[in-house]
Amino acid sequence: MDKEQQIVQTDYQKMQLLLDSFVRKFGSHKTVDLLQSIDGNTSITIDQSKKVQVLKEFIVAQCIAIFELDRHEFYTNETNEYRKARMACYKLFETYTKCSHAHIGRIFGGRSKRTIQHHCSKCTSFLLLYSDFIESYTLLEKITIEFLGKLN
C-alpha cells in the first residue's frame, strides 16, 4: 500500500470513529439531518450577494491572519507572499461558490477573468508542490468550510 492510500485509509478511519461517536450521542436521524444540511450548505450562489460579500471579507481576514500579512497591503502588494495569499482566496471562491471567474474578479477589486483563472490553476499546482503553502491553504479552507456551514 502506498503512502497516499495509507493517508486516505487513516482519514477514513478517523472519520468513521467520529461519525460513530456522533451517532451514539445524537442518534442516526439527527446525524442524517446534519449531514444533509452540511452537504447542501457548502456553497453559495451569486444571487446571495450579501453572503458572497460576507464570505469574501471573512476569507480575506482569515487569509491575512494565516499568511501573516498587512491588511492595508493585501490588494496592492505584488510580492510572492501576497500573491499566494490572494491566489488562495480566489481558489476557495472558485471551489465554494457558484460565482464565475469574471464575478470573482469583480468581487476582488476588478481583477480580470483570465487573472482569476490563471491564479486558480496556479494554486492547484502549488497545492501539489509546496508544503508551507499546503499547510496555510488547508487551514484557510478548513476555517472557510466551518464558516460556510454557519453562514448558510
Tell me about this structure:
The protein is built from 7 helices and no strands. With 152 residues, it is mostly helical. The protein is 78% helix and 0% strand. It has 2 domains: 38 residues; 103 residues, Chromosomal Replication Initiator Protein Dnaa, Chain: A (Orthogonal Bundle). The N and C termini lie far apart (39 Å). Helix 3 packs antiparallel against helix 7 and helix 5 packs across helix 6.
Task: Give the SSE layout.
Elements: H1 3-26, H2 28-40, H3 49-67, H4 80-96, H5 101-107, H6 113-129, H7 131-151
Brief overview:
It contains seven helices and no strands. The protein is mainly alpha-helical and 152 residues long. It has two domains: 3-40; 49-151, Chromosomal Replication Initiator Protein Dnaa, Chain: A.
What are the main properties of this structure?
mainly alpha; 7 helices
Tertiary shape: globular
> Briefly, what CATH class of the largest domain?
Mainly Alpha
The number of domains is 2
CATH-defined fold name of the largest domain: Chromosomal Replication Initiator Protein Dnaa, Chain: A
Radius of gyration: 17 Å
Provide the β-strand percentage band. Answer: under 5%
CATH homologous superfamily grouping of the largest domain = DnaA protein, C-terminal DNA-binding domain
SSE order, one letter for each helix or strand: HHHHHHH
Rounded average pLDDT:
83
- Indicate the CATH architecture of the largest domain: Orthogonal Bundle
Low-confidence segments, given as residue ranges, are none
Q: In whole angstroms, how far apart are the ends? A: 39 Å
Number of helices: 7
* Largest beta-sheet details: none
Helix share bin: over 70%
Briefly note the structural class of the backbone.
mainly alpha
Number of beta strands: 0
